[in-house]
Amino acid sequence: MFTKIEHGPLMDRVYRHQRHFYDVTRKYYLLGRDPMIAGLNPPERGSILEIGCGTGRNLILAGEAYPKTSLYGIDISNEMLATAHKKIEIAGLGKRAKLAYADAADFNPQALFARRHFDRIFISYAVSMIPQWQLVMHEAVSHLAPHGSLHIVDFGDLADLPSVSRKALYKWLDWYHVTPRNDLFDIAESIALKNNATVQKQRLYRGFAWITTIRRNGM
Ligand SMILES: C[S@@+](CC[C@H](N)C(=O)[O-])C[C@H]1O[C@@H](n2cnc3c(N)ncnc32)[C@H](O)[C@@H]1O
Q1: What distance in Å separates the CA atoms of residue 146 and residue 195, rounded to the nearest whole number?
Q2: pLDDT digits (tens, 9 = 90+) for 21-35
Q3: Domain 20-161+174-216 class?
Q4: Which of 10, 47, 133, 138 is 20 to 30 A from 121, alpha carbon to alpha carbon?
Q5: Best CA proximity match to 145, nearest among 42, 36, 61, 73
Q6: Does residue 151 line the site of ligand 1, with CB under 6 A?
Q7: 40: which DSSP letter?
């Protein structure tokens, strides 16, 4: 397991070169991101935070889909953030989006963005890369506004794949420091129970991608 201090430099090493062709290649296998964004459905002038925002690809799509919202993103890789800044500017969303370097396991939105809560928070293909992913989910729920929701999309349990293909895929993912979280839905349920929230689970593409949504009830 990586410590907090080692994880940022590790992510920088992983993405230093990949960030230049990341969006072109990932569209073929980071499945479920667009349905997750389509399901955000924030209030008209609501706030949206992406944890582990990478190249900014998802924030740009969310900004286009929900044109009056305020956008926020954090990432532990300065390399990825450099690309995200550039892409968000090119997309004309620079005035609506704020990005910050932060560890999802320990971040203070008040200090970073001068706000405590968000209407929507999403995490796309990052829980499978974050050692303290359960803590990150807990933290994210604590930063939801009343009636806010946390949306997570990531690799599913790949249960419908033949076992040879599944093993090969797991090995390949491991090279990229990715571990599918097969207990994602169970953890979402237990977090919801403690937070007066409800959970929605979606299995897409024969279990290749999972989306889980934790919706907070009013306080
Ligand atoms: C597989 S990429 C996904 C990027 C983007 N969310 C997407 O869907 O294209 C995972 C991202 O999570 C970031 N990340 C990993 N661990 C993190 C942590 N502890 N805190 C914040 N970001 C983290 C990585 O730097 C990387 O940008």
Answers
A1: 11
A2: 788 778 777 899 999
A3: alpha beta
A4: 10
A5: 42
A6: no
A7: T
52 alpha carbon – ligand 1 mean position (Å): 4
Asked whether the predicted pLDDT for residue 4 surpasses 60, the reply is: no
Strand 97-101 to 70-75 pairing: parallel
Most ligand 1 atoms within 8 A of CB, residue of 13, 53, 151, 155 to mutate: 53
Give me the chain's average pLDDT, please: 92
The domain locations on the chain are: 20-161+174-216
d(CA 193, CA 191): 5
Sheet-wide strand order for 70-75 = 97-101, 70-75, 47-51, 118-124, 144-155, 209-216, 197-204
Q: How many residues does the chain have?
A: 219
Burial environment of residue 102 by CB neighbours within 10 A (0 to 12, 13 to 18, 19 or more) = buried
69 in contact with ligand 1, CB cutoff 6 A:
no
E runs forming strands in the chain = 47-51, 70-75, 97-101, 118-124, 144-155, 197-204, 209-216
* Nearest protein CA to atom 11 of ligand 1, as residue: 52
- pLDDT tens string 67-93: 999 999 999 999 999 999 999 999 999
Burial 148-162 (b: 16+ CB within 10 A, else e): bbbbbbbbbbbeebe
